[in-house]
Write a structure and sequence with these properties.
heterodimer; A: alpha+beta; Aldehyde Oxidoreductase, domain 4; 24 strands; B: 142 residues; alpha+beta; Ubiquitin-like (UB roll); DNA polymerase, domain 1; 6 helices; 5 strands; globular; binds FE2/S2 (inorganic) cluster; AldOxase/xan_DH_Mopterin-bd_sf (chain A); AldOxase/xan_DH_MoCoBD2 (chain A); Molybdopterin-dependent oxidoreductase (chain A); N-heterocyclic_Hydroxylase (chain A)
Chain lengths: 699, 142
């Protein structure tokens, strides 16, 4: 199951929550042990977002076990449930709700068996710390005592009732993150820290441009087609060899990068399609037309991508920080021409992941090097330059908005178009493997051109293109470019980053000085109105006119994907030599919150990520190469620039959970843009809002 | 060549960076590789009490000096403060940040917010945990 991509399909089976629907055996999800602990086996993976703690809380609640008795097994293909990709702020919906149901089912099954063997009626039994107690408080059995029976070797039943919202004791509390203490001690917890006996180290040498052919190969390097790498016994040696190989290798040809990317966006052919059309088209007497541009942006994780691979007896084992171990297995098998069963992908944590970065790509790099050294584990690590330039980038976009109003200034029609490359180039979905080095291999197919998932699955370039406001007519179209000189794929928020900014900038302009009232008058959705009012109350937005000159506040609102969490943001900025964001106030409604502090941490992080994108981030390139290959040339927000962030969560324990990783990013960008209007009197139309780009606005 | 590593004598043949030596030859995982160009802070260690990047520094520069990694600081009141504030997401940046915060507290036991921000300026945290980290350092000061 991956709602992030497909949306729901009716397959005729009784509906089970989340990914349980397509992974129906309970034994796939959990196991009990004689020592009283239980292992849960999620198919969603830890990306730094704290999901393991959240999932353990859900399991502890339903099973009636202390949190400390829950072990979380790393996702391994062939063993763990296939939950496709950990993305789209959907882990709690898909995996958490599956686990909640599976654990409730397991508890019911175990209690029935305990009732039968003890003669105590099922209703009279209660669970306490994994023990099943009779009315007299005496233990009649336990998960541990029954752990050797194959009770979980059964399909999940649709008729179990998890603990009702009002009775939850663990879910809904801010349990501290399970992974934080070892990380604070610097313990070997990351894939990067894995050390296997006899391990070799690999570094890759990349073609300077896509499509360049390798014509001169240093004799000490490993070559397969146009794939070039070095393998050495130590990291230091591998790094030195890679530097030498890069100097000696000669490449020819390849395609040029679109140095003038705005022009390229307009001129490149694409497929046009309608995203949505609602209401009756009407032309107004006044028409407002605005066009917004956002550049390519990088994932820019603090750690670089890493993988360890072991090739033995024609089978491959890969340790990876991929977001989708099963999808990676599919494409590794294709690229290496192996049956999928001959490949095992095991997840290990990497540095923070904010979308489709190079984690999958480096797994193929490691596998290719391991194939040349059978029996020896090979660890491949990317350089900072690869991390910033060889990983997929979030594609540049052009968003046009045209609003028609009648004689009284009422909106009669909202027409919009988002244009750019597709935002989904993930592995495991196309006919040919979507891994960086795959097209370099002899006889390989080119890299599949990225697509946009359907709106039911969250969309790509069209994510949040349709405004959440009540409008008599909306026409939203997208154009997906069919050429992809720069590999494009998903980064936190996808198309929403530009689309929400475009909508909220235009709404702000139309509001003519009453940004809150104007938005409220166009809202039917009470949860949207609530977050907007809360953000205003929290931030003192109504007193913005008292700010000193050069300062400004801006507000923005979005419901992520139009189906996820609601988030309103007020940004307070000051125009100095560059723009500085001083404070952000957020209000968010994400339905049931399993771990409130974990959700706050994600929302705060998303807001800071959004600030960084708004003020600084842009991948730079000329025709020959990508130039933003270091933190100097791809600057991101630093400690001195980080705004204060305050978040108010609206508690809705009875509502379905909605995910916290992404909803705050796009409205933060939009709120900063609207604050620029108060501070400088201009409405920015080019991201990032650097002095150079702002100077172009008055042209 | 020799130096002191986390309080114990250490010998190294040289020829690599301090970070490579620490990770590969002394099997430490606290100092992390993030850029190799002294731009991200992931690899910071204490060299005679001063927080420095180890990724481009030849191991020879440590000759006769004291090298302390986050492992050598453990247990430290900062770690408890970071836990109390839940100051971390992926955690990849944390050991470098802890090292710089520890160096700051050693030379200035009562830093204000500006001093904390300045001390942590070399460190990137892409997960956006900076505010929690600032709170955690203030908590350790209090
Ligand atoms: S790895 Fe040393 S500063 Fe980035
Ligand atoms: S916690 Fe992920 S980089 Fe700081």
């Amino acid at each position: 199951m991956n709602l992030a991509f497909h949306g729901f399909a009716d397959d005729g089976k009784a509906r089970l929550p989340g990914s349980l629907h397509v992974n129906r055996r309970l034994s796939r999800w959990l196991a009990f042990h004689p020592d009283g602990t239980a292992t849960i086996r999620p198919g969603k993976v830890e990306l730094g977002q704290g999901i393991l703690t959240t999932l353990a809380q859900i399991a502890a609640e339903e099973l009636g076990l202390p949190l400390s008795s829950i072990r979380v097994a790393p996702t391994v293909t062939g063993e763990s449930p296939d939950e496709a990709v950990t993305s789209g702020s959907l882990s709690v919906q898909e995996c958490g709700m599956a686990l909640r149901h599976a654990c409730a089912d397991a508890r019911a099954l175990f209690l029935s068996v305990a009732a039968q063997s003890s003669g105590v009626p099922r209703e009279a039994l209660r669970v306490e710390a994994g023990s099943f107690l009779g009315p007299d408080g005496v233990e009649v059995s336990s998960y541990a005592a029954l752990s050797d029976r194959d009770l979980l070797d059964a399909e999940a039943s649709p008729d179990v009732s998890p603990i009702p919202a009002g009775a939850r004791r663990v879910a809904g509390t801010s349990a501290p993150r399970l992974d934080l203490p070892p990380k604070l001690r610097g313990e070997p917890r990351f894939l990067h820290d894995m050390r296997l006996p006899g391990m070799l180290h690999a570094r890759m040498i990349r073609p300077p441009r896509p499509g360049a052919r390798l014509v001169t190969v240093p004799d000490f390097a490993l070559r397969e087609g146009d794939f070039l790498a070095v393998v050495a016994a130590s990291e230091a040696e591998a790094t030195r060899m890679a530097e030498r190989a890069a100097r000696l290798a000669r490449w020819e040809g390849g395609i040029a990068f679109p140095a003038d990317w705005p022009r390229w966006l307009e001129d490149t052919p694409g497929e046009r399609s309608t995203v949505a059309e609602q209401g009756e088209a009407q032309d107004g007497t006044q028409v407002l037309r605005r066009v917004f541009w956002r550049p390519f942006i990088a994932h820019a994780s603090v750690g670089t991508c890493c993988a360890v691979a072991l090739w033995e007896a024609g089978a491959l084992r890969v340790w990876s920080h991929s977001q989708g171990p099963y999808n990676l297995r599919t494409d590794l098998a294709k690229a290496l021409r192996l049956p999928p069963e001959a490949v095992v992908v095991e997840h290990r944590e990497g540095a923070g992941c904010y979308g489709h970065n190079g984690a999958d790509d480096v797994a193929l790099d490691a596998a290719l090097c391991a194939r040349a050294h059978p029996g020896r584990p090979v660890r491949a690590l990317w350089t900072r330059a690869e991390e910033l330039a060889a990983a997929p980038l979030s594609p540049a976009m052009r968003v046009a908005v045209e609003v028609h109003r009648d004689g009284e200034g009422r909106i009669v029609s909202w027409r919009t178009e988002a244009r750019g490359n597709g935002h989904s180039g993930r592995p495991g979905r196309a006919k040919d493997p979507a891994l960086l080095s795959a097209p370099l291999l002899p006889g390989a197919a080119p890299m599949p051109v990225s697509i946009n998932p359907p709106l039911a699955g969250g969309g790509g370039v069209q994510r949040n293109l349709v405004p959440l406001y009540r409008l008599p007519h909306v026409k939203a179209e997208m154009v997906r470019l069919t050429e992809m000189p720069i590999r494009a794929s998903a980064l936190r928020g996808l198309g929403a980053l530009a689309n929400v900014w475009a909508i909220e900038s235009v709404m702000d302009e139309l509001a003519e000085g009453d940004p809150v009232g104007f938005r409220l008058r166009h809202l039917d959705d009470p949860r949207a109105a609530t977050v907007l009012r809360e953000a205003v109350a929290l931030s003192g937005f109504e007193n913005r006119h008292a700010l000193s000159e050069g300062e400004g506040m801006g507000i923005a609102l979005a419901r992520y994907k139009n189906t996820g969490a609601w988030c309103a943001v007020v940004a307070h900025i000051r125009a100095e030599e560059r723009l500085r964001c001083l404070a952000l106030h957020l209000a968010c409604d994400m339905g049931e919150v399993i771990n409130p502090d974990g959700a706050l941490n994600q929302l705060e992080g998303g807001a800071i990520h959004g600030t960084s994108i708004a003020l600084k981030e842009e991948a730079r390139f000329d025709e020959e190469c990508i130039l933003s290959t270091s933190w100097d040339t791809y600057p991101v927000l630093r400690f001195s620039e980080v705004p204060r962030v305050a978040v108010k969560l609206i508690a809705r324990p009875e509502e379905p959970p909605l995910g916290a990783g992404e909803p705050s990013v796009a409205p933060t960008i939009a709120a900063i843009a609207n604050a620029v209007h108060q501070a400088l009197g201009i409405r920015p139309t080019r991201l990032p809002f650097t002095p150079e780009n702002l100077a172009k606005e008055s042209d | 060549m020799g130096f002191t590593l986390n309080g114990r004598p250490a010998e190294h043949p040289g020829g690599v960076t301090l970070l490579e030596a620490l990770r590969s030859d002394f099997a430490l995982s606290g100092p992390r590789f993030g850029c190799g160009q002294e731009q991200c802070g992931a690899c910071h260690v204490l060299l005679n009490g001063e927080s420095v990047p180890s990724c481009a520094l030849p191991v020879e520069a440590a000759e006769g000096r004291e090298v302390t990694t986050v492992e050598g600081l453990t247990p430290h009141p900062l770690q408890a403060a970071f836990e109390a504030e839940q100051a971390g997401q992926c955690g990849f940046c944390l050991s470098g940040i802890l090292v710089s915060a520890a160096a700051l507290l050693r030379r200035n036991p009562g830093p204000d917010e500006a001093a904390i921000r300045a001390a942590l300026e070399p460190h990137l945290c892409r997960c956006g945990v900076q505010n929690r980290i600032l709170r955690a350092v203030r908590r350790a000061v209090a």
